[in-house]
Each structure stands twice: as structure tokens, then as C-alpha cells.
Amino acid sequence: MKNIIITLISFIFLVLPGAANQYIQAELLGFPSINENSVTANLNLSYLQIGFSRLFVSASDNYIINNEFPEIKIPITDLYLLCDGQEFQITKSGWQRFFIDNFDIERVVQKNINLKLENIGTLPSGTYTTVLKFLNKTGLNLDYECEFLFSFIVDEKQSITSLNGDAVILLSEEDIFNKHSLVKNQNDIRLDLISNTKWKLWLNTSNFEENNCDYYFQVKNITGKINNYEQNNIKLLPNQRYLLASGEATLEGTQFGNIIPTNLTVEYSLKNTENDSYIKEGINRNFITYILERE
After folding, report:
1. Model pLDDT for residues 200-225, shown as the tens digit of each residue
2. Where are the alpha helices (DSSP H) in the chain?
3. CB atoms within 10 A of CB 196
4. Using DSSP, how many helices (H) and how many strands (E) does the chain show?
5. What is the pTM for the complete model shown?
């Protein structure tokens, strides 16, 4: 009697729809490729063809979610499956058939397919995931299903662009003898920022040269995703780091064209020191380094 029970259990295990993953299995080939406006991934789908097979795909959720910041979501309808030159939109509303195998034979088949996430812009950094379901409807009216975790990582991306280079301060003959007034830079130093994560902007004076004058800076004219910035006139010293500003990711949503222009203007000025030395008349330059990093 014991042997009969074992035989019955084994039989049920072989024919129960969706009970054994060997009837359909999805495997990622390599790593997803992340470009400026798309994410692509190559999959190998292996399935057992019994009589013939019809292959379907569906999503478990309406969104692809950023695990670190769940409020950041990409609609699942932006994800497409490519098979044999045809493109199929993935949704949660129902099964999307993407392939029919008409061979009346029992065999294991390997099928290469592609996933492509389209119409995206610069994505916030983090790991994005969603679960896809694949279905194999065989010629024996048996359905076999598996799940596939679609996941990709968006690295941190930050950049600074300066439109006018280094600060240039022009000192007249009157300026070099005035110990009280601040002489400001003639050119606006505007810094344009791009960051797909929270950020801090630092001013570094490791290459700063000491001379017979006092340098100052002040942040003005902010635009975009800036939370805090230095509003006071701050004296610069060599080999220091000064926090200019901090803010959110310079993005809005996850769609194409989602970058928010974010910039600030730094005003520099100088004056004579309180000793008896005087700076020279003419153009005064100094070298400042800007560092953008994650908050």
C-alpha cells in the first residue's frame, strides 16, 4: 500500500499545471543595458513543448518600483517584449500572447526574447524591480507558469558645468588703496547641476593662493531643486571646503525630458587686508574647485 501512495503522488506532481518549473523557465542573459532613454535586457525562455505551445506574458504589478524610494514608479506599460521581430506591450490587465509553436512534438525549446523599457528620461538612482509572469499553454490543455524578477540598477549620475570659468576681479587704482570696500567679480559664475540623487555642492580651496587680500564668496540667484544655500558673505581660506548648496535630485518623474534646470550663481569679491601691504592694480584671478557629491 505504501508503494501505491508514492506512485500516485509522483503522477500528480508531473501533470499538475504550474507545479513544476521545468515546464517553463526564464533566465537573464548578461546584465541589462541602461542608455539615456531606455533599458534593455536579453532573456532565455526554455519551455517544454507538448504537441504545440502558446507563450504568454503578463505583469504582477502596474509599476516598476525603485526599491530605495518606492514613491518613484515607472508604468509597466512602458515595458515591451520583443520576439522574432515583433513588439508586445506588457500589462497587468491580462495575458499577452507573443509566440505560437506549431510543431506537434514533445521537446524542450530554447527561445531568446528581449525586454525593452522605452520613453524614459534620466532615472533617479537605485534598484528597480518588477515581477513578470510567463505562461506556456500546451497542446494537451495543460498550463505551466513561471515568474521572472526583472531588475536593473541605475548608478548615481552627477555633473557640474560652469559657463564663465574662473572669477575675474578687476582692481582699479582707487580699489587698491581702499581698505573697506569689497570689489566684486565682473563675470557671473553660474554653475549648472545635474544629479539623479540628493546632492551637496562644495567649494574647495586646495589650489587657492594666499596673497595680500581677503577673498569672499556668496551664493545668489538659485534656480531649480535647491533646498539650502549659503546666503552670507563668507571669507575664503586656503585648503578648506565650504558648503555652497544642497538639494534634491534634479529630476521630475521618470518620463523623457524630466530634467529640471538647476543652477546657482556664485559671487566673489576681495578687499585689502588690514596690514600695510597693498595688492597690485589690474586683473586678479584665483583657482576654485567645485565638488558635487551625494548627500
Report:
1. 999 998 877 766 678 899 998 999 99
2. 2-15, 173-176
3. 21
4. 2, 23
5. 0.80
